[in-house]
Amino acid sequence: MEVTSPKDFFEKALPERFNPDEAEGVDVTVQITITGENGGDWIVTIKNQNLDVKEGVHESPNLSLKMAEKDYLDLINKKISAEKAFFTGKVQFKGNIALALKLKEAGFL
Q: 6, 13, 44, 77: which has the fewest C-beta neighbours closer than 10 Å?
């Protein structure tokens, strides 16, 4: 299923893609900011192998990602890799890169 907006991804695709087995030991709060027409701010929390997603801004996330809507959709629809997005400057990232890679394994990216 191709995701057509960030909101679709957070509300529908992410809960389906999330793999709790790969999130064992992960305790993270991620702030995601998507710029563009259908953009917005989302807080994704993974703790005790559970996923919680809500719109809004967190004051002190462990990780933060900022991307343009088109680039984000390319990323979650697997048109570009997370590594390529990072190394080509399509994503502004703050936090622990090893933790971000763990999130990728859990189905987050």
A: 77
pLDDT in tens, 74-102: 999 999 988 888 889 999 989 988 888 77
Within the chain, strands assigned E span: 28-35, 40-47, 50-55, 63-68, 91-94
State how far the Cα of 34 lies from the Cα of 67, in Å rounded to an integer: 5
Structure tokens at 60: 């002190």
CA atoms within 13 A on the CB side of 2: 4
How far, CA to CA in Å, does 81 sit from each of 37, 63, 74? 23, 18, 9
Q: Is pTM beyond 0.85 here? A: yes
Domains of the chain: 6-105 (3.30.1050.10)
